[in-house]
Fold this sequence. Notes:
The complex is a heterodimer.
Chain A: H1 10-33, H2 50-61, H3 76-82, H4 117-125, H5 127-130, H6 149-159, H7 165-169, H8 176-186, H9 215-228, H10 230-233, E1 249-250, E2 253-254, H11 259-268, E3 275-276, E4 279-280, H12 293-306
Antiparallel strand pairs in A: 1-2, 3-4
Chain B: H1 5-37, H2 49-81, H3 88-110, H4 124-146, H5 155-174, E1 177-179, E2 185-187, H6 191-209, H7 212-226, H8 233-247, H9 262-274, H10 276-291, H11 296-299, H12 301-324, H13 326-332, H14 337-366, H15 373-406, H16 418-423, H17 426-464
Antiparallel strand pairs in B: 1-2
Helix pairs in contact in B: 1-2, 1-3, 1-17, 2-3, 2-4, 2-7, 2-14, 3-4, 4-5, 5-6, 5-7, 5-8, 7-10, 7-12, 7-14, 8-10, 9-12, 10-12, 12-14, 14-15, 14-17, 15-17
Amino acid sequence: MANSALYKNPILFAVVTTVVVLIGTVVTMFYPMMTPEMHPKLEGLKQYTPLQLAGKDVYQQEGCVGCHTQTVRPLKTEVLRYGEYSKAGEFFYDHPFLWGSKRTGPDLARIGGKYPDAWQYKHFEDPQSFFAESNMPKYGWLKNNKLDPADVEAHMKALGFTYQPEDIALLNGKSELDALVAYMQVIGTSVKKADAGDKKKDLSVEPVNPFKGDPKAIASGKELYSQNCSACHGVKGEGGIGPSLIDDEFLYVKGDLKDDDYFELINNGTQAGNVEEGRTMKGGMPPYASLGRDKIWHLVSYIRSLQGK
Amino acid sequence: MNDYHYDNQTVKGFILSSIFWGVVGIVVGLLLSIQMWSPSHNFPPFFTFGRLRVVHTNGLAFGLGIGAIFGISYYILMRLSKRPLLFPKLARFHLHLFNAAIALAAVSLFAGMNQSLEYAELEWPLDIGVVILWVIFAVNVFGTIIKRKEEQMYISLWYIIATVVAVAVLYIVNNLSIPAGLFKSYHLFSGVNSANVEWWYGHNAVGFIFTTPILAMFYYFLPKSTGMPIYSHRLSIIAFWSLVFAYLWTGAHHLVYTPLPDWIQTLAIVFTIFLIAPSWGSVVNGFYTVGADWSKMRTNYLTKFFIWGITFYGLQTVQGPTQSLRVVSQLIHYTDWVPGHVHMGTMGWVTMTVAACIYYIIPKIYDTEIYSEKVANIHFWLVLIGQLMFSITMWITGIQQGALWKAVNPDGTLKYTFMEVLSKNYPYWQLRTVAGLVFTVGMLFFIYNIHMTIRKGKALAAAKA
């Protein structure tokens, strides 16, 4: 068969090769593209605002996709760690998709609204102040780069996104860091928080801390506290981005809460509008259910020790 | 006989350029490996991990890889067509344009102009440059083959033609974008569809840059350097057609468990498993070729490079399909296993094969012998050890990472926070830097050897004149 004309005629050979490579291309790429299956859009999905789009541009410019994914796989532990698995319809306005292929840092598909803005700013400026062993580069220098509103407007136009002239005016004086934080806060928010995993609504937890006063638990809690809590609540619980843990005010009302309330707050975080012991939350704290029951109790033990209780 | 002198200079130009860009890419890679365990080695804005990573991948895929492919393909093309290149001046222009494009590409990536599509990061003005480079290459490839003085087209020419055709289709489609300024554009496709187009491209960039042109080199230079003919012509025909057919179905194995429709994922996995057959067709062909006289492994230093190169290709093409299976993917996807996999292919298969071709070509061009087989052997062992250390370390890291991410307590809660898992990677990441250093030292021996061979050749030429 090696003597056939095919192996003597380069043009014929190229044509046959082209047809052969196009078969798989058509079936797995061109054909699906023509079907609505490949262009799904969630009902609540919004176009990016100019500031958010500018932030997404910064995300691309800095190559964030090299270390962070934006897709939660429908696997049990993944949903536990990050939240609701990613839906096809979430990404309709993403040119290109930014799912990534490596998790040197954590997945960001559900980062929107997980932390307050102040957390994001402080974390970008000094990730190691939150997580001593983090290998993320510092990005505080982005605040020295001011956005060019005309550029951002051109980008909005290129994508055909609707915007108001006021939105463009708002960009004056804003930095790349402001934009990046705005983008962080919108990622994955088209999937309702209420559906998001990473928390358990009906906790059946002991009313009193089973590790109360246990020195080992306090030591473990101290370690956990410095890794997960001190950046917002202060090294000694004195407060900072988050409220003080050693005064007598919890959820904006005077008076302490019970052990199991502490547990629930750590486990579920504070979602705006939720109520605990008649006190309404304003949001800001992410859930720490992924720590697991024992470690959360260790934290409660340590916080109690900070309070001198 | 034909005078290849002018074209030889172009071939040499491409080879030396590809070595130069290779050094840039490898040095950047070393810095990246340090940044993984020492974030204070990020120097914003130009030398942060996020920007450097794409300089590394593009520098090596396009600078080292494509540079070598252009140069070595031209060399093969002339010998198999028994004539000089049809457009020698165009080929020389091709060389200069190539270097200009790679330099601009590096600058633009340092500056953060990044489409965020893996292996297609370059912004649209550079995409146009790449297309022009490719058209020039295609013109010389087809022109020279059409005007050849040899009736049959040898296997290597099939692989070069397939490379020209497939890369053209892949690159143009995936880089279709909406320009939004001189240095900014957005992927024409969005969301799930954007993902599907990108990985159809991304995986086939591996197929038609790191596979088919390297196989073209393998099929030409293995018989040349050993003096033994390819074992089975029939096997190479079957392997060729089934490889170029199956490759294009497999991109979605990069998107397992993502919101991409399941049927595309499953189809991709099936074809990925099938791909073991044509890949091993070439592996078997290589082994049986040298199988006629295994003592060549001892007596001919180039045989070692080619046979170990094709062995890593064989391992790569079994490991890859294994990774595509859902049960494996769920554990190792997104972990450090993946860079371990990639580097076996690039440091083991591609770089070893390309280096062997260069060892063969440079003395031929200068009409001399290699400066030192001993240095070549040191080079061989260092890159082999460096690469194995790198890959094996990363596989262990990846399995550990994947397992700890999944670990749960008896009450169903997660056992480890993300930071706890990350902090356990540091010793492995440090070991990886050591592995990279060993590999780099090996490459320095290679460069020294080539440099000295050229010096020797020039001295001989001067003596004759």
